[in-house]
Design brief:
Radius of gyration of chain B: 18 Å
Helix content of chain B: 25-40%
Largest interface: A-B, 34 and 31 residues
Shape of chain A: globular
Structural class of chain A: mainly alpha
CATH architecture of chain B: 3-Layer(aba) Sandwich
CATH superfamily of chain B: P-loop containing nucleotide triphosphate hydrolases
Largest sheet of chain B: 6 strands, mixed
Helix content of chain A: over 70%
Number of strands of chain B: 10
Oligomer: heterodimer
Order of helices and strands of chain A: HHHHHHHHHHHHHHHHHHHHH
Shape of chain B: globular
CATH topology of chain B: Rossmann fold
Order of helices and strands of chain B: EEEHEEHEHHHEHEEE
């Protein structure tokens, strides 16, 4: 099918355009020939990273294999597998409903409906390797634990069925148009009308009202559900680990605190991406921000909006800290740094949405994801605690004190404050 | 022949757009659809194009939209207000991809000539995202004609065309309709002199204040 050949071409061209836009000021310092070489280099790095991320499950399963004596590898790998299925993105360009509706219409006209095959191929590209690696490693793990051949086959069938249900459930929830096109084709004459009944939301400015309305979709509610599930589950797990297992508090608090900025990053980006308004109105935002110098207003409106929506996370951190350390000065400090990390993380992400200063209208046009995309900040600023939390926990255990953890998070929250203050616009 | 039988369309629970719309359009017809902003021209085209739901029945050459959608849609091409195009494909690549979807190996020679005449050929290697609005509309029109449809539905099609391209397009479409015994329905606000005498039928959508609903006035409208 030529579709995939052209989709590959589109992805490559888009990646080149995105790299050129992201690193424009740096690349423009070079001559045209060198610029092309650098672009190709960045593109190849991007391709290698994408390929490596596809192979990442192999390393995880191998790690699980090596520590199988201290954990149950079947449980851990199954939790990891379903976790990756759940967080795999299906709201991206590959599953754009407008595009797929268009493709479906063309294919329907050909009277040979290859659209279903196309969707199945797309899903296999997205989830295929994840399922394959899991199935392969689970055979090894189960054989190690002396499961019979029949048990392994039955277990794998059960897992495949569950994985299929999760994928269909994900599509149904956040991309139900694709399920409709898969079953009925582009025949909207028989489709039940879906009417959006916008809820009135207590907001103080018109922009926030519009923002709130544009977010009232299934993907948004899924992210909000994630935040509630995480909040409740984390409190429950901390309570269980603290009172029923002999796990050091130092390990729990370092891992728990480290997840905050990364989690807020994940949820905020998810909510921002699912807002039709932020995606589609970036040209008008660009115009108003430039004409009326309203950057501050837009940033504040969006950060207030996100802060309110994710408040449950902050409270869960308060409760988690309290469960671990009760009424103590440690709890007070943990609450303080959790609050700073919470607000600063949101403000840092918000600033990316309206960073129009460097960009022209052509750059901004249909390129929401590009200027919003900042992997270096994701990894080394907001993801920093996750990267070093294990080393931090080990060091604290060696010292027999939680002070290194407190010190690190105090320094990190001050760093975020300065980072947010100093980096006005990137 | 296109037949609209007792078409009713409403949004939500109470907001009725159309009620009891009947229309018959013979083959080899060019129909101009006019009416005020928001009266429902695009909605009517979307209904006929099968991209929105409705009550009633639509038949194209006896094929029912609801009961025989596959055969109905084979002969229909709709170009809406915002046609979907791939930003990072050139017009020639887009055409090649769509031809692969519809299992056609080569472009029809007359369509090839049309592409050249409307000035799309010189942009064949330019990314679609870099094309002007008018050129994008030209590309959409070419894509709509790839399947040799019996019914072409165009929503405000010529607003961004330059005078020469518009004239060429109108001539091409007129010949196409005659040669293929097709039906062309286009919604417009344009009072351009080029469009005078182009259509052989006119449908006016207007609000009947007494009945509080949109009615359709046409020379072959049968109640």
């Amino acid at each position: 099918m030529k579709y995939f050949k052209f989709k590959k071409l589109i992805k490559k061209r888009k990646a080149f355009a995105n790299i050129e836009m992201l690193f424009g000021s740096f690349l423009n310092k070079f001559a045209d020939g060198d610029k092309k070489l650098l672009l190709s280099f960045f593109y190849n790095v991007n391709t290698v990273i994408t390929f490596a991320s596809t192979l990442a499950p192999i390393f995880i399963y191998e790690l699980i294999y090596y520590i199988r004596s201290s954990i149950n590898p079947i449980y851990i790998s199954t939790i990891y597998f379903f976790g990756t299925l759940l967080i795999t993105e299906i709201n991206n360009d590959d599953y754009d409903p407008a595009e797929l509706e268009n493709v479906s219409q063309w294919m329907y006209k050909a009277q040979k409906n290859k659209f279903r095959l196309l969707i199945i191929e797309k899903l296999l590209f997205t989830f295929g390797t994840k399922i394959l690696f899991y199935c392969f490693f689970i055979i090894i793990f189960m054989k190690e634990l002396y499961f019979s051949f029949i048990s392994i086959i039955l277990f794998e069938c059960l897992i495949l069925l569950t994985a299929w249900l999760i994928i269909v459930g994900k599509l149904w929830w956040s991309n139900y148009q694709i399920i409709y096109l898969f079953i009925h084709g582009p025949n909207y004459a028989i489709k039940k009308e879906y009417i959006i009944k916008y809820k009135n939301d207590k907001q103080f400015n018109k922009y926030q009202i519009a923002l709130s309305r544009s977010c009232q979709n299934r993907t948004y509610y899924l992210y909000i559900l994630f935040s509630y599930i995480y909040s409740l589950a984390s409190i429950f797990i901390i309570w269980i680990l603290n009172y029923h297992f002999d796990i050091k508090k130092i390990i729990i608090i370092s891992v728990y605190s480290a997840t905050e900025s990364a989690l807020i990053n994940f949820l905020s980006q998810g909510i921002i991406n699912c807002s039709k308004m932020l995606n589609d109105s970036n040209l008008s935002d660009f115009y108003y921000i430039k004409k009326f110098n309203k950057n501050e207003f837009y940033n504040k409106s969006l950060s207030k909006f996100l802060s309110k929506r994710l408040l449950v996370l902050l409270f869960s951190y308060y409760i988690g800290d309290f469960i671990l350390y009760g009424f103590s000065y440690f709890t007070a400090i943990a609450i303080l740094y959790s609050t700073i990390i919470y607000y600063c993380s949101i403000k840092i992400i918000t600033k990316r949405v309206f960073r129009f200063k460097k960009f022209s209208i052509e750059d901004v046009k249909n390129n929401f994801f590009v200027y919003f995309f900042n992997p270096i900040e994701d990894l080394f600023i907001l993801g920093l605690p996750v990267i070093i939390c294990s080393a931090l926990a080990v060091y604290s255990i060696k010292l027999g004190s939680a002070y290194p953890i407190i010190f690190f998070f105090i320094v990190y929250s001050i760093f975020l404050l300065f980072y947010d203050f100093l980096v006005k616009e990137r | 022949m296109l037949e609209l039988i007792n078409i009713k369309k409403k949004y939500g629970e109470s907001s009725v757009i159309f009620d009891e719309i009947y229309l018959k359009v013979d083959n080899t017809s060019i129909v101009e659809l006019i009416g005020k902003n928001g009266i429902g021209k695009s909605t009517l085209l979307n209904i006929i194009g099968g991209v929105t739901n409705f009550d009633g029945e639509i038949l194209l050459n006896k094929f029912s939209l609801k009961n025989n959608f596959k055969k109905y849609i084979k002969g229909v091409s709709l170009i809406g207000n915002t046609p979907f195009l791939y930003d990072y494909l050139t017009p020639s690549e887009t055409i090649e991809m769509i031809l692969s979807f519809i299992n056609i190996k080569r472009l029809d020679p007359s369509l090839n000539d049309f592409i050249e005449e409307i000035g799309l050929y010189k942009y064949k290697n330019t990314y679609t995202r870099e094309l002007s609005l008018g050129t994008k509309q030209k590309l959409s029109l070419v894509l709509a004609l790839l399947t040799s449809p019996n019914l072409i539905l165009l929503d405000e099609p010529f607003v961004n065309f330059d005078i020469k391209s518009r004239k060429t397009t109108l001539d091409y479409l007129k010949n196409y309709v005659i040669q293929n015994k097709a039906i062309l329905i286009y919604a417009t606000h344009s009072t351009d002199t080029d469009l005078v005498g182009f259509s052989n039928k006119r449908i006016i959508l207007k609000k009947d204040e007494q009945l509080n609903k949109v009615v359709l006035v046409s020379d072959n409208c049968e109640p």
